[in-house]
Amino acid sequence: MRGTRRTRLCLAGVMAASTLIATPAARAAERTDGHLTDLVNPFIGSQDEGNTFPGAAVPFGMVQLSPDTGHNTGYDYTQNRIRGFSLVHLSGVGCRIGGDLPVLPTTGDVTGTDYTKYAAGFRHADEEASPGYYRVGLDSGIRAELTATERTGVQRFTFPATDKANVLLNAGQALHKPVAASVEILDDHTVRTGITGHGFCRDTGPYTVYTTTRFSRPFTAYGTWDGAKLTPGARTGRGGAYVRFDTTGDRTVEATTALSYVDAAGADANLRAEGGRSFDAVRDRARALWERRLAGVRVQGGDPVLRRTFYSSLYRSFLAPNIGSDADGRYTGWDQRIHRAKGFTYYQNWSLWDTYRTQAQLLALLAPREARDMALSVVRTDEDGGWLPKWGYGPVETNIMSGDPVTPFLTTAYQLGLLKGEEERVYRSLKRNADGVPPAGHPGIGREANNEYLAHGFAPYEADRPYAKMGDSDYHHGASVTLEYALADAMLAQMAHGLGHDADAARYAARAQNYRRIFDPSTGFFRARDASGAFTGPADPARGTGFHEGTAWQYQWLVPQDLNGMVDLIGGRAAANARLDAFFAYDRLLAEPERTAREVWVHGNAYNYYNADKYNPMNEPDLIAPYTYLATGQPWKTTDVVHAALTLFTDGPTGMTGNDDLGTMSAWNVLSSIGLFPIQPGYDTWGLSTPVFERVDFALDRRYWPAGRLTVTAPGTSAGDRYVQTVRTDGTPHPLTYLTNRALRATRTVAFTVGPRPSEWGTSPQAAPPVLR
Question: Phi first, then psi: what are they for 472, rounded to 5°?
């Protein structure tokens, strides 16, 4: 049998050449000197609901200044009118939020206040973007340029020669739903606004942002508006303001806008701290910040498209979470009161259901100082507001998505060594979250179905249960919620054990086995159970009843804590591999990897999550699935599937696999490309697969990664030679399909030897990733 398999795979491997995998010809163009920022295309993902934005930001910046064209989340490459350049965007989210203070330059008389009507046309031929910079020529003859600092956005407008060059500041319109807005012209250089809004997928509680805009020269006229009523010469309004310049001589106007989630004084202070520099100086600094950040990873090998998609994904991985504290450390907590961050930077915007699987681990590797502050910021939401978050925007909970994502997010920080001195503090918050539910008066739902889960071992599926609070409901997704709770329990058990809380560790480890409670032997799949304990919904595992954004086929592999146990449930390794092969359409995949990825795996649009029995690379439940083969004795198939999935990342506007979700999919691309992937999210296990680059050099922070560097090599890696023959760590043979964080911290080199056929590497039961007990 093994000989037959090898022959079939050898022949198929020759047929499976992909333009995204390094070839001998491509290796001739492997140099990565020059500016890494030149390899980044911010337009990737701006079409087909990738929902990225092309505008200007610095890493993790509070301000992400970008054009809005009318799309739900800001910018859509297929649209050709810009409503304004606004301060706040979230990269790759699926629902409307942000878009605060759209600013647009115009000429002539100001006659309208609705940005859907005065929006300016543009053409992509006169548009460009790079990290920290955006430029566009508007059909009006005005050139607009954007750049940013952490808490300010800087705009430069070059007008035609006219005495009616206007800048419109629209405080009353945004991507979110407006509640209230105020605008005040303070002097002949300065405009201040306060904007309150709410929105997102199922709405949120209101939040307020404050802005102060300082222009580079005095304006010659001004006015404000309330609704459709425009009042020239007025200094205050509740909708927006315009200011006018004479550009018959000097045609350039610069404006710096500072943002604060605290108060107007915070915006003023942020402007003093980060303003006062020319546009070019700010742009140069932003580019330098991105260059230093991207230089943490240098790759060799691969063709230019592969390198561009890689560095563009690395760029998007550093766009969020976002700084939430002002320059003086003040921030608005989840109790809606003002607090001060001392000794750390406070961050916000937590797409945890997405990011706990990939981006949290990537940031722990490449940005550990920031990742530590991010973890501490999440704990502050509990200490300030009374509970840990599920999906937080700014200072409010949205309750979007389900399960318990905050637990693996924080245990990842613990396992990767980011919480020194804070372990017990973090554990207290996690324990309270895992063993209870938020009080009725709290806006969050936490583990909403926890009472039933603790009593019976599963979260019930109750399709008609009313929403208790804004956002999603765990009761509407009982099957997948049970799997997510059990995963979180497993990771918390490991943290409890590491801290010496042995009784807690045993209790959580027992709960981690609750995935078994929703396994239906009659179908061989996980299945939802109703409040009485009966299996419910169609028996067809492709229908998705009780699973959040997926089906039983797609969720069956979400048991990273005990893959051996899950495999036993479905009949052992042979049965599991047969099911995995069917799930990935493996035979067709070998012959046509790109077509299989695009025509079999991807079915319909980015939001088509249900009624499928195949891998969905566009959504989070399947992010770990290709690595299941590492536990079933067929690790070469992980490489086949991962490399086919990587072909979905291209260097054009459609080059994303669904919503990026604050860097989640981008981080998947980065980690899968380098051959190190977090296969047990919330723990410290890195799965190994063939890198797509011949060499990857990491410059690491010695405070968290003592070696200070890591090099991954795979000489000759290509579509034809993609199978691992051996792995060596610092020259020593490594037969396992994974590395622990402890091993990775002590390692300087991970060397893959690759070839055209699968080998015996990683096929023994002892080579499989560990079971967490």
Answer: -90, 170
Q: Identify how many contiguous H helices and E strands the chain contains and give both numbers.
A: 22, 35
The tokens of 349 are what? 């915007």
Candidates 3.50.50.60, 3.30.565.10, 3.30.2080.10, 2.160.20.80; CATH matching 1-30+564-773: 3.30.2080.10
Alpha-carbon span 353 to 375, nearest angstrom: 15
Average pLDDT of span 274-287: 98
Q: Which residues of 82-114 are buried (b: 16+ CB within 10 A; e: fewer)?
A: bbbbbbbbbbbbbbbbbbbbbbbbbbeebeebe
- Measured CA to CA, the distance from residue 284 to residue 278 in angstroms comes to 10
- Assign domain 38-292 to a CATH class: mainly beta
Between CA 398 and CA 298 the distance in angstroms is 37
Q: Give the residue range(s) of CATH 2.70.98.10 domains in the chain.
A: 38-292
SS3 223: strand
Q: How far apart are CA 263 and CA 58, in angstroms?
A: 22
pTM for the model: 0.95
Residues 6+ apart with CB under 8 A from 305: 19, 20, 650, 651
Q: What are phi and psi of 407, to 5 degrees?
A: -65, -55
Of 402, 398, 410, 388, which Cα lies nearest the Cα of 485?
402
Identify the CA nearest to 529 among candidates 541, 539, 518, 521: 518
Pairing of strands 723-729, 749-755: antiparallel
Report residue 403: phi and psi, to 5°: 80, -150
Segment 216-220 long-range contacts (CB within 8 Å, at least 24 positions apart): 216/252, 216/253, 216/254, 216/255, 217/189, 217/245, 217/250, 217/253, 218/188, 218/189, 219/167, 219/188, 219/189, 219/243, 219/244, 219/245, 220/163, 220/244, 220/245, 220/246
Provide the strand spans (E) within 570-690: 676-678, 685-688
> Is the separation of the CB atoms in 326 and 270 below 8 Å?
yes
Contact between 685 and 738 (Cβ < 8 Å)? yes
Q: Which of 84, 252, 244 is nearest to 161 (CA)?
A: 252
User: ω into residue 733 within 30 of 0, thus cis?
Assistant: no
Cα distance between the two ends of the chain = 34
Average pLDDT, the chain: 94
Question: Is a pLDDT exceeding 90 seen at residue 3?
Answer: no
Q: What is the distance of C-alpha 490 from the center of its chain?
A: 23
Per-residue pLDDT tens over the stretch 225-269:
999 999 999 999 999 999 999 999 999 999 999 999 999 999 999
Domain with CATH 3.30.2080.10 in the chain: 1-30+564-773
Cross-strand partners of 192: 184, 212
Bridge pairing between strands 391-393 and 350-351: antiparallel
Which single residue is written with the structure tokens 């550093």? 318
Residue pair 749/664 in contact (Cβ under 8 Å)? The answer is: no
Q: Are 676 and 725 in contact (CB under 8 A)?
A: no
Q: By CB neighbour count within 10 A (0-12 exposed, 13-18 middle, 19+ buried), where does 467 fall?
A: middle
3-state DSSP call for residue 617? coil
Task: List alpha helices for 142-226, DSSP H.
Answer: none
Question: Which DSSP category does 56 fall into?
Answer: B
Q: Please say whether the beta carbons of 152 and 275 come within 8 A.
A: yes
Per residue in 152-182, pLDDT (tens digit) is 999 999 999 999 999 999 999 999 998 999 9
CA–CA distance, 194 with 176 (Å, rounded to integer): 14
Asked whether 163 and 253 are in contact (CB, 8 A), the reply is no
Residues 557 and 355: their CA atoms lie apart, in Å, by 18
Q: Which of 682, 685, 686, 683 is nearest to 408 (CA)?
A: 682
